[in-house]
Amino acid sequence: MSQEPRGRLSSLINKAMRAYSKAKAHRPPDWFISSALIIASILLLGGTLYNLLEKPLVAYFVGEYGRPILYHPGAINDQLLGESLAVMALYVMGTSGLLLLYRSTRYAHRPRQAYIMLMAGLVLLIMSYAIIEMILRAKLIY
After folding, report:
1. For residues 86 and 70, is the Cβ–Cβ distance under 8 A?
2. pLDDT 10s digits, 66-102
3. What residue spans of the chain are helical by DSSP H?
Protein backbone atom coordinates (compact mmCIF):
# COMPACT_ATOMS: atom_id res chain seq x y z
CA MET A 1 0.00 0.00 0.00
CA SER A 2 2.84 2.38 0.76
CA GLN A 3 4.48 1.66 -2.63
CA GLU A 4 1.57 3.04 -4.64
CA PRO A 5 1.97 6.77 -3.73
CA ARG A 6 5.72 6.55 -4.37
CA GLY A 7 5.05 5.17 -7.84
CA ARG A 8 2.67 8.02 -8.62
CA LEU A 9 5.10 10.56 -7.22
CA SER A 10 8.02 9.26 -9.27
CA SER A 11 5.79 9.18 -12.36
CA LEU A 12 4.80 12.81 -11.76
CA ILE A 13 8.44 13.78 -11.22
CA ASN A 14 9.45 12.05 -14.46
CA LYS A 15 6.68 13.83 -16.37
CA ALA A 16 7.68 17.15 -14.85
CA MET A 17 11.35 16.56 -15.72
CA ARG A 18 10.46 15.70 -19.34
CA ALA A 19 8.24 18.79 -19.63
CA TYR A 20 11.02 20.95 -18.18
CA SER A 21 13.62 19.58 -20.57
CA LYS A 22 11.27 20.19 -23.53
CA ALA A 23 10.60 23.74 -22.36
CA LYS A 24 14.30 24.35 -21.80
CA ALA A 25 15.17 23.08 -25.28
CA HIS A 26 12.51 25.25 -26.95
CA ARG A 27 13.97 28.34 -28.59
CA PRO A 28 11.99 30.93 -30.52
CA PRO A 29 12.99 31.49 -34.15
CA ASP A 30 15.83 33.90 -34.89
CA TRP A 31 13.60 36.26 -36.89
CA PHE A 32 11.29 36.61 -33.87
CA ILE A 33 14.13 37.46 -31.51
CA SER A 34 15.65 40.00 -33.89
CA SER A 35 12.25 41.58 -34.63
CA ALA A 36 11.51 41.90 -30.92
CA LEU A 37 14.89 43.54 -30.32
CA ILE A 38 14.41 45.98 -33.19
CA ILE A 39 10.92 46.94 -32.02
CA ALA A 40 12.08 47.36 -28.43
CA SER A 41 14.99 49.55 -29.47
CA ILE A 42 12.80 51.74 -31.69
CA LEU A 43 10.30 52.21 -28.87
CA LEU A 44 13.01 53.07 -26.36
CA LEU A 45 14.94 55.41 -28.68
CA GLY A 46 11.71 57.09 -29.76
CA GLY A 47 10.93 58.16 -26.20
CA THR A 48 8.25 55.77 -25.03
CA LEU A 49 9.45 55.87 -21.43
CA TYR A 50 9.49 59.67 -21.48
CA ASN A 51 5.96 59.72 -22.87
CA LEU A 52 4.70 57.32 -20.22
CA LEU A 53 6.34 59.18 -17.34
CA GLU A 54 5.84 62.82 -18.41
CA LYS A 55 2.55 62.55 -20.34
CA PRO A 56 3.40 65.37 -22.80
CA LEU A 57 0.98 67.25 -25.03
CA VAL A 58 0.28 65.84 -28.47
CA ALA A 59 1.07 69.09 -30.31
CA TYR A 60 1.25 72.86 -29.90
CA PHE A 61 -1.23 74.99 -31.77
CA VAL A 62 0.10 78.37 -32.85
CA GLY A 63 -1.00 81.22 -35.01
CA GLU A 64 -4.29 82.71 -35.97
CA TYR A 65 -5.77 79.47 -37.33
CA GLY A 66 -4.30 77.10 -34.76
CA ARG A 67 -1.62 75.51 -36.96
CA PRO A 68 -0.24 72.43 -35.15
CA ILE A 69 3.47 72.06 -34.43
CA LEU A 70 4.57 68.50 -33.68
CA TYR A 71 7.90 69.44 -32.07
CA HIS A 72 8.67 71.31 -28.88
CA PRO A 73 10.29 74.56 -30.07
CA GLY A 74 13.35 75.78 -28.26
CA ALA A 75 13.67 72.87 -25.85
CA ILE A 76 16.11 70.15 -26.80
CA ASN A 77 15.31 68.19 -23.63
CA ASP A 78 11.53 68.17 -24.07
CA GLN A 79 9.37 66.52 -26.67
CA LEU A 80 5.74 66.30 -27.62
CA LEU A 81 3.87 63.08 -28.23
CA GLY A 82 3.49 63.87 -31.93
CA GLU A 83 7.24 64.40 -32.22
CA SER A 84 7.92 61.11 -30.51
CA LEU A 85 5.56 59.23 -32.81
CA ALA A 86 7.03 60.94 -35.88
CA VAL A 87 10.56 60.04 -34.83
CA MET A 88 9.54 56.43 -34.17
CA ALA A 89 7.98 56.27 -37.65
CA LEU A 90 11.20 57.69 -39.12
CA TYR A 91 13.24 55.10 -37.21
CA VAL A 92 11.03 52.39 -38.71
CA MET A 93 11.61 53.91 -42.14
CA GLY A 94 15.38 53.96 -41.60
CA THR A 95 15.39 50.40 -40.30
CA SER A 96 13.39 49.31 -43.35
CA GLY A 97 16.00 50.98 -45.52
CA LEU A 98 18.78 49.10 -43.75
CA LEU A 99 16.91 45.82 -44.18
CA LEU A 100 16.45 46.51 -47.89
CA LEU A 101 20.16 47.23 -48.20
CA TYR A 102 20.91 43.94 -46.50
CA ARG A 103 18.41 41.99 -48.61
CA SER A 104 19.77 43.43 -51.85
CA THR A 105 22.92 41.37 -51.41
CA ARG A 106 20.88 38.19 -51.82
CA TYR A 107 20.05 39.00 -55.43
CA ALA A 108 23.52 38.89 -56.97
CA HIS A 109 22.22 36.64 -59.76
CA ARG A 110 19.57 39.28 -60.60
CA PRO A 111 21.49 42.57 -60.75
CA ARG A 112 18.51 44.72 -61.73
CA GLN A 113 16.46 43.64 -58.71
CA ALA A 114 19.51 43.99 -56.45
CA TYR A 115 20.10 47.54 -57.74
CA ILE A 116 16.44 48.52 -57.23
CA MET A 117 16.46 47.20 -53.67
CA LEU A 118 19.79 48.90 -52.97
CA MET A 119 18.54 52.27 -54.23
CA ALA A 120 15.21 51.97 -52.39
CA GLY A 121 17.03 51.16 -49.17
CA LEU A 122 19.42 54.09 -49.61
CA VAL A 123 16.56 56.48 -50.33
CA LEU A 124 14.64 55.37 -47.23
CA LEU A 125 17.71 55.58 -45.03
CA ILE A 126 18.80 59.01 -46.27
CA MET A 127 15.26 60.41 -46.12
CA SER A 128 14.72 59.27 -42.55
CA TYR A 129 18.08 60.68 -41.46
CA ALA A 130 17.46 64.02 -43.20
CA ILE A 131 13.98 64.46 -41.72
CA ILE A 132 15.18 63.63 -38.21
CA GLU A 133 17.98 66.20 -38.65
CA MET A 134 15.43 68.79 -39.83
CA ILE A 135 13.30 68.18 -36.73
CA LEU A 136 16.35 68.54 -34.50
CA ARG A 137 17.46 71.75 -36.22
CA ALA A 138 13.92 73.18 -35.97
CA LYS A 139 14.00 72.53 -32.22
CA LEU A 140 17.35 74.32 -31.89
CA ILE A 141 16.42 77.39 -33.94
CA TYR A 142 13.49 78.54 -31.81
Report:
1. yes
2. 888 777 777 788 888 889 999 999 999 999 999 999 9
3. 3-25, 30-46, 48-54, 81-104, 111-141
In degrees, rounded to 5, the angle at the alpha carbon of residue 135 between the alpha carbons of residues 94 and 45 is 50
Per-residue pLDDT reduced to its tens digit, 1-28: 445 666 677 788 888 888 888 888 888 8
Which among 125, 117, 119, 114 has a CA at the least distance from the CA of 90?
A: 125
Q: Is the dihedral of CA 45, 50, 55, 59 positive or negative?
A: negative
Q: Please name which of 115, 114, 62, 52 lies closest in space to residue 84, comparing C-alpha atoms.
A: 52
3-state secondary structure (DSSP) of residue 80: coil
Domain boundaries, the chain: 47-141
The pLDDT, as a whole number, for residue 142 is 66
Alpha carbon separation from 110 to 103, 113, 121, 124 (Å, rounded) = 12, 6, 17, 21
For residue 81, which of 53, 56, 54 has the smallest C-alpha distance?
56
The answer to whether the CB of 89 falls within 8 A of the CB of 58 is: no
pTM attached to this predicted model: 0.77
- Residues listed for the chain: 142
**E-only strand ranges, the chain:** 60-62, 67-69
